[in-house]
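Complex 360.
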Amino acid sequence: MINPRNEIYNLTEYIPGKNPETLKREKCIDKIVKLASNENPIGSSPMALKNVYEYLKSGLNIYPDGASYELRKKLATKYKLGMENILITNGGDEAISIVASTFLNSQCDVIISNLTFKRYTDSSLLQGANIINVDLKDFTYDLTKILNSITANTKLIYLTNPNNPTGTILSQEALFNFFDKIPKDILILYDEAYGEYVDDDNFPKDSRHFFTKYKNVITLKTFSKIYGLAALRIGYITATKPLIEYMNKVRPPFNVNALGQVAAIGAIDDDEFLAKSHKTNLLEKKFLYNEFDKLNISYIKTQANHILIYSDKYDGNTLTSKLEDKGVIVRSFNKYVRVTIGTHDENEFFIKILKDILNN
Ligand SMILES: *Cc1c(COP(=O)(O)O)cnc(C)c1O
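Predicted structure with pyridoxal-5'-phosphate bound:
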């Protein structure tokens, strides 16, 4: 019998949002709306797609640039960063894995809040790290409790801003106060996957440069969410040069495919698409809040493109499966359900189904 290493037994499989085609097959329903994975409902950046079409003309027989030179150059110019401070990754997910495998082993404690992104837990467990879980307070990161949970072995603290799945944010002031109190030998992975959706002046303005003042902070960004490039798997982190150098040794040589690189280069300048995505999200968020109020559904006010809701009639799993039976795919988080803010048509369909379920 062949056994995996011990850490593997601690992992649970990641269950992604159900694929619409799978649901169609299983339930024999023709209209499916997927509001489960926080994808951009209005599509992909047209400037990104243009670069992809262009690239395809020359074929796919050549390995991508393992160093993602052009994309790093583009990011460096746009955001006034050094190229040596950027690491391009196969989506934010790979960034999380690379951070964990570069810095964690079984002697490390990591601090992860309850009700946040699951990949932090799995990537840490894979390294054999010990996880310290901290509850949220009012659905927001409890920075005081996190500080009080630090041990002599603490190596890494994960923060998501805005948080997934709650959509709540930490202000720049709260964050900097927190960073000021963290010992310099503890890393912070600051995950801003949904940063572009925020509509609040207190949100940090320049997270890509956090490492210049706080050398222990690694900032994560992705093209999967507002830029609409989830299918291509592309994201990046910014950090000090020595940290990037360590992580570069861990990263697979051709971790980011060529289409992802050229797409991201196009997306970065697509201000129009960004503005349109942001605006749609705000309008539709208001629409959903209003409908939830009418239906007596409770929700957490969100700064991201997803809303955490709960009903006193059904727990999260029950509500999720009832919605799925009628063609709406959402994500369950125990008591709660997380729903991605869709297009107006998608949201109307979701509300109509939700109404049916609640009235039965
Ligand atoms: C979606 C998401 C990511 C990264 O997603 P990728 O598609 O791998 O780039 C990272 N962190 C959080 C909190 C997310 O929700």
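DSSP finds 13 helices and 13 strands in the chain.
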